[in-house]
Amino acid sequence: MSRVRVLVGTRKGAFVMESDGKREKWEITGPHFAGWELYHIKGSPVDPNRLYASQSSGWFGQLMQRSDDGGKTWQPVGNKFVYDGVPGTHQWYDGTPHPWEFKRVWHVEPSLTDPDTVYAGIEDAAIFRSTDAGQSWQELPGLRGHGSGPKWQPGAGGMCLHTIILDRSNPQRMYIAISAAGAFRTDDGGATWKPINKGLHSQYIPDPNAEVGHCVHHVAMHPSRPGVLFMQKHWDVMRSDDAGDSWHEVSGNLPTDFGFVIDVHAHEPETVYVVPIKSDSEHFPLDGKLRVYRSRTGGNDWQELSKGLPESDCYVNVLRDAMSVDSLDKCGVYFGTTGGQVFASADAGDNWTAIARHLPAVLSVEVQTLP
Amino acid sequence: MIRVVLPAHLRNLSKTGGEVTVEVSGAVTQRSVLDALEAQYPMLGGTLRDHATQQRRPFVRFFACGEDLSHESPDAPLPPEVASGKEPFLVIGAIAGGAGLQTCA
Fold it and tell me: A residues 79-138 near B, CB within 8 Å?
């Protein structure tokens, strides 16, 4: 019978949760790296025992960890992220030029075909790649070299490259997203990149057709539909049917279209999940009721999912990398909150159960479906 | 032989006990001690000094013989008591720091 492994990164360590395919009883191990911030942990699709983790602290900087046994043991690997060439400047909060400075790794994305190849999205925004299982890291400089780099500016959480999407049908194509620059695509394996933000409209940006400057919170894609992208922007849930060349809004009947996470059902490419958050000044659910919203129509028509979720007095946030799905039948959906809860649904969102309630604030949730 | 005391997180990372010892040939300075420490425990690379700039991390402090040496030149000689092994070189995580959540207001 298949098993499921949930990799949870928190502000104070990592937790690994495993269950059989029923997804009723969970064994939780951790904290791994107790006391450190684990921004993201993700497993290799070709070797599920190979995991990569981003470990950092305000005191001791960035570490990278690798596990070759599914998270039972870990070893530190390379943590040297040096920008290619002269780093140059981006725009600071006050509009002045500010030198690019490495701060941390927000996201790790293992290759779809090689367990020793992994990408890292970092702050200040850049993409790095390792082809030796994390021992050394090299920047793909074409992204920052696109030409718009000097105009990129940080969001409130820093200028982070937080989303990396690989395309199984086209190894040369990747998508990334940066807060607050926008989304970008490469069609030549990372050598060159183009901004893909046409159709995004962001309040306070004077130019409605601005090439960059959008606060994209997260982007999701179904592997079988690589040209279809779903985006949770700062405000607005967006969809693209042409690999990001143009976007249109699909917020529809959502009670608020601010939020961070977005994900797609494992078997239904038109079924999308978001967690609406009240506003950019109040980062918690509307009326203290935690709700997931599901669209089975690729957006616009959204259904509230609440069975098993807190009905009142819930003032947590769900951060951008803190939702994931398994590929069992029925599809499991998982998300973590800044209140330390991890919720799971074994029936595509109809019913929810807390599989952990009192963890440190959850930064990321990834799921592996194991044979 | 130089004695170095690491903060708890870095003792865990390097799988060491309360105190480690390193050998330094030549002048005993912050730089030479940290170089020797990182050579002996490569996983500590980047945790005390920024990889690119080699600057001390803002919330890492260096003490010895009751003195805060954090703002001394990395090439200044450390006290003779440290060089002789009588007193340890203390690496301290300052009572400050931390990082914000992923957010975007």
Answer: 79-83, 102, 104, 106
In a domain, B101, yes or no: no
Q: Which residues of chain A does B102 touch, with a Cβ-Cβ cutoff of 8 Å?
A: 39, 106, 157, 160, 162, 260, 319-321, 363
CB A199, CB A248: distance < 8 Å: yes
ipTM: 0.90
| Residue A245 within a domain | yes
For residue A157, give how far its alpha carbon lies from the nearest alpha carbon of chain B (Å): 5
pTM: 0.95
Kindly give, in sequence order, each residue whose CB lies less than 8 Å from that of residue A340, ignoring residues fewer than 6 positions away.
A10, A356, A357, A358, A359, A360, A361, A362
Overall number of domains in chain B: 1
CB atoms within 10 A of CB B65: 15
- The CATH number covering residue B39 comes to 3.10.20.30
- A96-125 residue pLDDT tens: 999 999 999 999 999 999 999 999 999 999
- Of A131, A119, A106, A96, the residue nearest A175 (C-alpha): A119
